[in-house]
Amino acid sequence: MNFIGRIFFTSRLIMKVYDFLEIEKKWQQYWDEHKTFKVPDETSKPKYYVLDMFPYPSGAGLHVGHPEGYTATDIICRYKRMKGFNVLHPMGWDAFGLPAERYAMRTGTHPRVTTQKNIDNFRRQIKSLGFSYDWDREIDTTDPGYYKWTQWIFLQLFKKGLAYLHESPVNFCPTCRTVLANEEVYSGRCDQGHEVIRKPMRQWMLRITAYADRLMNDLDEVDWPESIKKLQRDWIGRSEGAEVDFLISPDDQIRAWGKGCEVEAWKSNRRTSKWPESPESYTLRIYTTRPDTLYGATYMVLSPEHPLVEKIVTPERRQAVLDYCAQARNKSDLERTELSKEKTGEFTGAYAVNPVNGKPIPIWVADYVLISYGTGAIMAVPAHDQRDWEFATKFNLPIIQVIEGGEIGSQAYEGDGRLINSESPVSTSINGLNVSDAKKKITAWLEEHGIGKTAVKYKLRDWLFSRQRYWGEPFPILFDEQGNPTPVDESELPVALPELADFQPAKTGESPLANAEDWLIVKRDGRTYRRDTNTMPQWAGSCWYYLRYLDPKNNNAAWDPAEEKYWMPVDLYVGGAEHAVLHLLYARFWHKVLFDLGLVSTKEPFKKLFNQGMILSFAYKDSRGAYVNFNDIDFSGDKPKSKTTGEVLVESIEKMSKSLGNVINPDDVVAEYGADTLRLYEMAMGPLQATKPWNTRDLSGVHRFLHRVWRMIIDVDSGELHSSIQDVEPGEDELRLLHKTIKKVGDDIEGMNFNTAISAMIIFVNEMLNKPVKSKSTMEKFVQILSPFAPHISEELWRKLGHTDTLAYEAWPKYDQALAEDASVEVPVQVNGKVRSRLVVPADVDEETLKQLALADERVKESIGDKQVRKVIIAKRRLVNLVIG
RNA sequence: GCCGAAGUGGCGGAAUUGGCAGACGCGCGGGAUUCAAAAUCCCGUUCUGGCAACAGAGUGUGGGUUCGAUUCCCACCUUCGGCACCA
């Protein structure tokens, strides 16, 4: 270091500039030691429960996306505390999951060890940002003291008949050796990108479909973004239509079952017996949303898995049909999706009789009909359903138009219109009606004759709840020698994960738990049982964690009902939109079950939901299209260049990802700029819900703001309060600015418009910074409103202003509406919509005065010239527009 | 293909019920301070023309409603997110 440099270095030490590293360390320690944010045990104050979606503690550590939502909720919490609320703001870990298990399979390190390490790192990182969590309520889904209660809730589901075993083809990833729910398969691949196949297995299912209606209807009661509600409604996918029975033609019946039933005899029998719960063996039940098109049905389709296929197929078609079904069964989801453009199918040789006109129509089998929806069988109306139209066109099946409109030659017509070709001596006529009336009339006829019934169906399927993994909650279930499930006694909970040395799945395809022999076999009352070797999916722990926070250390119950009554529902839930459907739907489902059991007092768990947007990052590609890591880029010139080749790189905006080399680590940002700057920057970037790019360059803007805040209050030479700050009444300008800022910041926090709140505070500081006299009370109030955003610097300044206690519980400053408005306003005067002059007038000026002032203005007069003023439009305090002509 | 969100300066973004487009920040240009630099401060910064006063254009595109449209209506284009044969 040269002489000059040494002087500079020394002067920096002497100057008391904003030293964020020291300040942040000091206050984080203070909050920790004083347990500043421990929720007080009192119920007299109004409560406010703010929940962050708890993270999966990955090995990669915190991502700048995490603190975005956490900062927003922290601002709200700190604000609400100052507003007199008793605030619950907890944090925890959704810590079961595959990465730790994969790591264990590779290295033999127990997932608990990896998980603990990652949690410690996440906690350190989160704490370094100064969030006001009550750390005494920290939870961890992998803690036996936690998953004991996850298992307990499962037992309640089981006892209520909402959990059942089901053997069916499931989505299986051979690489991960695990089963996936439908919604965990994306275009035929698992989340690791491996191809998923279908495999029959005995699995736990949760009967979420029993709650479909309530999950749909109760969305009306919550304050969620409409787009998220719509996603959930579409996912539940309620549709109204009719089930209709078609008699399989007598010849085909005789072949399949050795007896025949005449159409008219069947119909007459149905008329008296009415609609049966399940159809006779020789009847094909279909579901349709378009019973009005019944006369246009020209063929039937069974899904390849439909049990009737095998029964009705004719000997000459048998080989082809069974081959087709086998092929469909073995197809992975990927193949099914990829081949979806071209329709395939086989004719079974059998016929069904259309109940409304007695005509026989061929029964086909095709994989465009899904076994899991409706009845797994349809009537095909090619004239009015595009999928049926494509199929009929390919296989030369007849197309009968029954609704006027469209161009049936080129595509199906799915719109409304007048019914045609729809009458028959054996039933009723719906000719001439519109679609909706035709539906009503034909459904009434079907119901009267016991042949059909209105029906409601959902896209929502029951929830596949088993995984063949180690690192999850074991099922508290024992199987007897016959394979019947018996619940473990509640007193034996938790069923803890056994210690294992090897985490590879069992050779049978079962989870690694099947290898834990000592654990696996248990004796009860002299009988031998085998434990369930499955574990629960990662969603299980997150389905109820918001309830455990209420009473996290309770060993006798999942939570205390009194705590639940006081705190629930969650007032504000903030997290990423990627959980819009699954997590939120599953948690709502469990919550409703708990509600029915009388264990919670609200129908819905999350009153208000807010989705933060994703933070993207710039990425740089060279001419070959390869991404270049930030570390290898020279940003010093006007264009980014590769450090190695000097080549100018092409910029794009992408998701942050290791492979693109564009990940921002919050630790680096905190070290260079401090937590307060990071918090402020994340909030100043733009609206919370928007997707927006990270730009490290922009950090300096808010960082400089904090430096100015510091210099506004502190004399950097002495480190003490600046001499301009005096114990005096503020002047009018200062008072107006202060009240305006208090109002704006408070309103913006309530509306979650943090970016504009910050901008208002910047304006305040820019205005006040160099004032020779500043009222101490003004400075104190400013520090208070700044504190939710930048709590460390605010606590430090609060102390410098002479206070000895934390400012976290100081009352939020009040504003006077009259002072929050400007005394005079500048009103633009337009002539034919163009601004020609501006008037400075008192804010309460009346319209007539304003009009006269405008007309008297020299520049306005000039613009009007000799033209006539036809109309004067006055928007009070906003504008005057003179229409001339 | 269907559904949803969004298109505003060089960049992130701001704009009450339809009422001054571009707040605030970044970047950039100029200046002060400095032997010099960093930091800091001041001024300017939508585009076009002009020394300037000022004039004209301007919120994805094209229309419409209105005294007045970033805002409301219609059609289209682009980007991002979700779903994907659900009968």
What do you see in this structure?
- 35% of the residues lie in helices and 18% in strands.
- The protein has 5 domains: 1-34 and 695-821, Isoleucyl-tRNA Synthetase, Domain 1, CATH 1.10.730.10; 151-233 and 462-531, HUPs (Rossmann fold, 3-Layer(aba) Sandwich), CATH 3.40.50; 239-457, Isoleucyl-tRNA Synthetase, domain 2 (Alpha-Beta Complex); 617-663, no CATH class; 824-884, Ubiquitin-like (UB roll) (Roll).
- With 885 residues, the chain is α/β, with parallel strands linked by helices.
- Strand 16 and strand 17 form a beta hairpin.
- It contains 29 helices and 33 strands.
- Strands 8, 9, 10, 11, 12, 13 and 14 form a 7-stranded mixed beta sheet that branches.
- The radius of gyration is 35 Å and the shape is globular.
- The model is unreliable at 1-13 (pLDDT under 50).
- The longest helix has 19 residues, at 732-750.
- The protein binds one RNA strand of 87 nucleotides through helix 8, strand 9, strand 13, helix 14 and helix 23.
